[in-house]
Amino acid sequence: LAAARIKVFPPEALRAQLRNRLALLTGGPRDLPARQQTIRHTIAWSYDLLNAVEQTLFRRLGVFVGSCTLAAIHVVCATETDPPIDVLEDVAALVDKSLLRQVEGPDSAPRFTILETIREYALEQLEVSGEADVLRRRHATYFRDTAQTSTSRRDFLRSITPERDNLRAALAWSQSAVGDPALALDLVLPVARIESLRGDYQGVRYLLAQVLAYAEGLIDTQRYAEVSVELGQFMSSLGDLVGARALGEQSYMLYQKLSDKPGETYALVNLGWVAREQGDAATARPLLEQAVALSRELGDTNLLIYALMTLAEVAVLEENPVSAELLLEECLALSRQSKDPQHLGYTFNHLGHAAQLRGDYDRAAQLHSESLALLSELLGDKNSGVAEVWCSLGETAIGQGNPAGGRGWLAAALQLCDELGN
Question: How many of the other CB atoms lie within 10 Å of CB of 30?
Answer without folding.
Answer: 7
